[in-house]
Each structure stands twice: as structure tokens, then as C-alpha cells.
Amino acid sequence: MNPHAPITLAQSLQRAQTQGLARMDAQVLHLHALGRETHDRAWLLAHDRDELSAATLERLDSWFQRRQAGEPIAYITGFKEFFGLRLQVDARVLDPRPDTETLVEWALELLPQGQPTRVLDLGTGSGAVALALQHERPGCLVTAVDASHGALSVAKANAQRLQLAVQFVHSHWMDAVPGPFEVVVSNPPYVAEGDPHLAALTHEPLQALTSGPDGLDDIRQIIAQAPSRLAPGGWLLLEHGWDQAGPVQELLRSAGFEQVQSRRDLAGIERCTGGVRAP
Ligand code: GLN
User: Fold this and answer.
1) Ligand 1 atom closest to Cα of residue 211
2) Contact at 8 Å (CB) between 146 and 124?
């Protein structure tokens, strides 16, 4: 089909799906191309007979191609909703996953409202976890670190736009942050090198995804460092892979952590494991 021939919104949505796009992805990209909120799917129905301009169709075509090549929707639209915040994201940072909201919810249970609890987010990427915590607990003192300068630029820009007072530090894990902190959270890289699942993630920064042959290299480093940075009675909470709850619990217990336990994500998978530094 000549991409410049005028077609309606409904026809364009149909065409996207014929080209193999998921219905939801096609809807989001159309809404974004038309300057609408990407959750406003009712708008699409009400406007299904609108004719799309040649320029819009051309832009959509290039987005369809990017999506078909496996690029996350968030990199194409340039933003992602996470815990009610609109975050700008690009290929310098991991596309924030809804699974990671499990980590945020658990941390919030440990952070009383209105108290200046010191919180550290390791490997903050887009800033998703740190910014969500600061937004929900304005009284907390949230520090966020990343070893990637690119990621820190993205996170700082998000903090500025959202007017959230997170302090950002360039650091490999806890090297540049002496602490102490009452709560340390992290969604570190945890995919095993050679995991076939990586084939679908080639657009995201590899250093944010993989961590040695079993995926646990960074988690081991964090667990080794954490006791020296946690206040007595402080919590370390880690996100990890679907099959890593057992090994992470074991690593925490061997490092002397107490009350070691795991939490399930929306899919029912044990996704986060944490423990307390002995008081
Ligand atoms: N949950 C992501 C995935 O498996 C990985 C995120 C991470 O390594 N922190 O797609």
C-alpha cells in the first residue's frame, strides 16, 4: 500500500496489526503520533474515521519498523509511567518494568511517612525507584547512585522535571557513598550471561541487564558491601530473576542478614528478596 495515500485512523490501526504489531502497541503509537495521552484509548474509538496526514503516516511507519525490530515502546515515545510518575527514558537506561513496583511497595512499608529516613537506591537507571520513593515519602532523604554517567543524566533530568529532591552520586555500587542508610534498595543487573531471553533485549544497555555466568555477580557484591553501609536494623531489598530467590536468600543469610524473606511480583513470581542487618 502506498503509505502516502490518505487512510483513516481505524485503517491505520488495522494496517499496523497486519504488519505484526500488538494491538496495544499500535494504539499507543497512534495516540503518541496524534499528540494524545497514550492511555486515552477511548479517544481512538471516537476518532476512528479521522484521516491521518501523510506526515503522521510516515512517522508511524518509522515507529512500526523500530518496534518490529524489538525496540521498547518507551524508547520510541520517550517516556514510561512508573508508580504514577511520568519518566523520560532512552537507550541509556533500562526500560522501567512494572515488576519493579514490587520493590517500591516493599520499601514503602519500611518507610514511615514524615520521617527523615535515609534511603539508598543502587543502580538507579532512569531514577524510577528513587523518584517513586521520594515522591511517596517527601520526608525521606533519598540518595541514588549509578556507575553510568549516561544513566545519571537521565535520572537527574527526571528528578528536575518532577521536582523531587533525590541526591545523585556517581558510584560503583556503594564505593562512593559512606552511609549509613536505614534502607538500601536495588534493581541490579541479574540476567545470566548467555540467557536466551537476552535476544529480545538488545536495545537496552547490557551492563544494566547481565551479571556474570549465573546473573548473581552484582548481587554478591552488593550483599558483601551492604553491612558496612546499613545502619543497625537497616534493610537491604533486592530485585532479582524469577529463579533466584533461593540463592539470594542463601547469600543474605551467609552474610549475617536476619528476617530474610521474598516478595512476589504481579505475576506471582518471587521477584524481590531482602533482609535486616543485625541490630
Ligand atoms: N527484569 C528484566 C528482564 O529480565 C531484567 C532487569 C534487570 O536485570 N534488572 O527483562
Assistant:
1) 8
2) yes
Ligand 1 proximity of 191 Cβ (cutoff 6 Å): yes
Q: Are 265 and 240 in contact (CB under 8 A)?
A: no
What DSSP string runs through 3-33?
Answer: TTS--BHHHHHHHHHHTT--HHHHHHHHHHH
| pTM for this entry | 0.94
Find the mean pLDDT for residues 170-177. 98
Q: Return the beta strands (E) in 134-227 as ranges.
A: 141-146, 167-170, 181-186
- Our answer on whether the CB atom of 126 is closer than 6 Å to any ligand 1 atom is no
The whole-angstrom separation of Cα 214 and Cα 206 is 15
Integer angstrom CA distances of residue 115 from 12, 50, 137, 182? 52, 52, 8, 11
Mean pLDDT of all residues belonging to the chain: 96
Cα–ligand 1 centroid distance for 216 (angstroms): 12
Share of the chain above pLDDT 90, in %: 96
A 10 A CB-CB count for 118 gives 17
Among 97, 104, 242, 244, which is best to mutate for testing ligand 1, by the most ligand atoms less than 8 A from CB? Answer: 97
